Amino acid sequence: AQTIRTTQETGFTGTPGFWKTIIGHCVESKNIECAEALHAHLLGASAMTPSIYKSLIQVYGRCGKFDQACDLYEELSAAGMDVDAESCASLITCASKSGRTALAQELSDKSTKVGGRVKDYMWLIRSSSKGGDVAEALRVFEQFKLEQPQSVDRVAYNHVIDACACNNDMALAERLAKEMRDVLGVNAVTYNTLIKGYCASRGLAQAMRVLRLFEAEKLAPHAASVRSILGLAARTLSVKEIWDILAAMDRHGVPLDPGSAILLMQAARKAPKPKDGINLLKILDRGDIIIIGDEVIFNVVLDACIHREDKQRIARALHEYSLAKFTPSARTYGLLIRACTALHSVKRCWELWQELNARSYIAMNESLFGCMIEALVGCSHVNAAHALYEEWRHKVDITAATHCTLIRGFAKMDEADKAMALYEEMKASGLKPAGGVYVALIGANCRRGQIQRAEALLEQAQASGVKPKSSTYACLIRGYCLQGIPRAALSLVHTLAEQGYPVDDVIYNAMLDGCVRNRKFKVADELIEFMRERQVPASNGTLMSMLKMWSRRGDLDKAFEALNAALADEAGQPVDAQVSACIVG
Description:
Elements: H1 2-10, H2 16-29, H3 32-44, H4 50-62, H5 66-78, H6 85-97, H7 101-114, H8 118-130, H9 134-147, H10 154-166, H11 170-183, H12 188-200, H13 204-216, H14 223-235, H15 239-252, H16 258-270, H17 274-280, H18 295-307, H19 311-321, H20 330-342, H21 346-358, H22 366-378, H23 382-392, H24 400-412, H25 416-428, H26 435-447, H27 451-463, H28 470-482, H29 486-498, H30 505-517, H31 521-533, H32 540-552, H33 556-568, H34 577-584
Helix pairs in contact: 1-3, 2-3, 2-4, 4-5, 4-6, 5-6, 6-7, 6-8, 8-9, 8-10, 9-10, 10-11, 10-12, 11-12, 12-13, 12-14, 13-14, 14-15, 14-16, 16-17, 16-18, 18-19, 18-20, 19-20, 20-21, 20-22, 22-23, 22-24, 24-25, 24-26, 26-27, 26-28, 27-28, 28-29, 28-30, 29-30, 30-31, 30-32, 32-33, 32-34
């Protein structure tokens, strides 16, 4: 727009070719402001030409200014100019979208006269498709068949079928394909177009049907079509179809491209069934995925292997990484550390840590730091993790997840005091512990005999809005039993039941197992009676504890009585092999 104003101020006139070049750039960049300034300038200078009008119509159409595009048609008509087939098709779309029905009809009638040549009819169909007007594309095709029936060939049919596929009208596309098959026979382009449409509309079953038709007629599908179906199957996690398509690719000699490889590895990670995810990783054994050729592919592959705990392929990926040519990013280093953690290679984790710190282009962040802490804690190097935390705590933001990892690490080692110190630091920083942290802290304190501290932690969890799970209560119950106060545990069970908490077998099993381990049989009897009153079916875990209890009490008759009652209880769980082994022992 500034260029236009400068030309006006200097008196520069410019040639039609010059102005057409400027307006062409406006079309590409959708620069409506410059186009409007140019239009005003050339109109004032009486320098408008049909080709400039054509480009202006394209600018307005691309920018969604449909009314202004239609106004240009009226303007050029008043100036005694006309439009070609391409502009006519664009204007039909603009008129339809702006609700100017009369103008759309006038232009449609005009397009028939303008589009006398086959290529003009094809252009009108394509233009209608781009504008989302399938009805207009079909009208032009029908007019073409009426005016020039001898010229209607597969190319013409494929044009209108493509218009339907691009605008998600697959029913019409199928009807036209059937009509084409009956009259002229279909070709590979037809099937490729149908596949494109079904993939765009996520119609995997229909796309697979078309692929089978392809092969039945001994036609070779285009590589892009097969990869489109494969991509759709991967995105929808359709594992069976993935393998079927891979087999079809092998039959037709279509190699896996990097984009398909990425989608397949993402599917391997996201597959709901672990077995399916692990099987999809076998695609890496085909040999046509070069995982070190690109950092994105390497990261996706490594992430999937880590998620599926495939140590063999993790080790292979780490070996291949040593031959990689790409420069690793922060994301890559995070995955490499996680991979070494899965292999319990603490030494390699430290090497990677030193390496990434030596790279000036990588800024240390909370995610990378958290990966290293998880690595050390996961390999039972909790004190080393804590030392690293102390070294970096003032250099990088430390997330709640990283605090929780350290707390759980110390809790697992029964270092209750260190875990509690980190817990207090976490709260002082304004970070909220996750529910699992409370379970770990309560368990650690109970094992260290700190029952009052464990009770306080439960109250703090509830006060902070964390709803304790059965595992949380089970930890406290085990603690009561371990400290020789099983009645406190039984009282907690009664209180939970009275409050309407869904007391499940996790809690009952913890209570019963704690009583049996500490030979508090009388309290165990009271719990069993409580369960009978509430008609709680005995799980396999509960039944095993009961059998152990009667065994320790030397009363095998009671043990068999409990087993037979469980076998007769249709509402209970099927008795498993562990229970059978327990009664035999």
